[in-house]
Automatic annotation (TrEMBL):
This is Ubiquinone biosynthesis O-methyltransferase. The lineage of its organism: Bacteria, Pseudomonadati, Pseudomonadota, Gammaproteobacteria, Moraxellales. It catalyses: a 3-demethylubiquinol + S-adenosyl-L-methionine = a ubiquinol + S-adenosyl-L-homocysteine + H(+); a 3-(all-trans-polyprenyl)benzene-1,2-diol + S-adenosyl-L-methionine = a 2-methoxy-6-(all-trans-polyprenyl)phenol + S-adenosyl-L-homocysteine + H(+). The gene is ubiG_2. One of its GO terms (molecular function) is polyprenyldihydroxybenzoate methyltransferase activity. Gene3D superfamilies: Vaccinia Virus protein VP39.
């Protein structure tokens, strides 16, 4: 999930919100809610991350890169929320699809949103729950062990903002996930998706470089055949009903540990889409 380049823009930083509240599952619960996982799941892909679940919040561990790029992703998400909804994350209902250990989910809650994280790895959600509780969060964050398609059927048009970051390339049918994101959004809501482009450069950087040369990710984390071009993701979004609004490349230098956004989308990229109001 890493592109290596020389940065031209300054590093973004996360703005913490003190006394943010987080809830895990239902009120007073200490474990995430669990439901049927559906059929759009490859448990071998889920297992790649659950086997490392106790290291999600180790900023020097296997998820170090996610921690390092999180402020940049968070800021770009909120910029698009402001651009298309008029105000930032504060007071918004937010859903983070494929939330893992809750790195982004927790950050969005700290920005003032009412956040929910969903994932198919129960161990990931347990790690997220423990970290949220250790942070003294109580009412603003909850986690659910549920397939996003099932959640969309149960709670359509329930969220102002939906994020799905670095997850689409790990499921059998990413178009189902995009459709579920659309169904879960309220009209006028914003969805931010991120994934990895499919071309020789992305293979070189995201697999050979990140997994085999630098060891930033475990070998086998990514399957090149599952990478998604921007044109393919755009088609999925339009088919689901979205209006595509913005596309940006995410670049990271593992040597300097600096990250920045640019128009080049050859490797990692993010796409912001909006659900029409009519």
């Amino acid at each position: 999930m890493t592109q290596f380049n020389t940065p031209t823009d300054s590093t973004s930083s996360e703005t913490p919100v003190s006394n943010a509240d987080t809830q895990s599952g239902t009120p007073g619960a200490t474990q995430p809610q669990s439901n049927d996982l559906g059929n759009n799941v490859d448990m071998s892909e889920v297992g790649k991350f659950t086997q490392l679940a106790n290291q999600w919040w180790d900023k020097q561990g296997p998820f170090a890169t996610l921690h390092e790029i999180n402020p940049l992703r968070l800021n770009w998400i909120e910029e698009n929320v402001v651009r298309y909804m008029g105000t930032g994350l504060t007071g918004k209902t937010v859903l983070d699809v494929g939330c893992g250990g809750g790195i982004l989910t927790e950050s969005m809650a700290r920005r003032g949103s009412d956040a929910t994280g969903v994932d198919l790895g129960i161990e990931n959600l347990q790690a997220a729950t423990v970290h949220a509780e250790q942070g003294g969060l109580t009412d603003r964050l909850r986690y659910k062990h549920i397939a996003i398609e099932q959640l969309a059927a149960e709670q359509p048009e329930s969220y102002d903002v939906v994020t799905c970051m670095e997850m689409l390339e790990h499921v059998p049918d990413p178009s189902q996930i995009v459709q579920a994101c659309f169904d879960l959004l309220k009209p006028g809501g914003v969805c931010v998706l991120s994934t990895i482009n499919r071309n020789p450069k992305s293979y070189l950087f995201a697999i050979i470089g990140a997994e085999y040369v630098l060891g930033l990710l475990d070998r086998g984390t990514h399957d090149y055949a599952k990478f998604i071009t921007p044109a393919e993701l755009d088609k999925m979004a339009i088919t689901a009903g979205f209006n595509r609004q913005d596309l940006i490349g995410l670049h990271y230098n593992p040597i300097t540990k600096r990250y920045w956004l640019a128009q080049n989308v050859d490797v990692n990229y993010m796409m912001a889409v909006v659900k029409p109001t009519e």
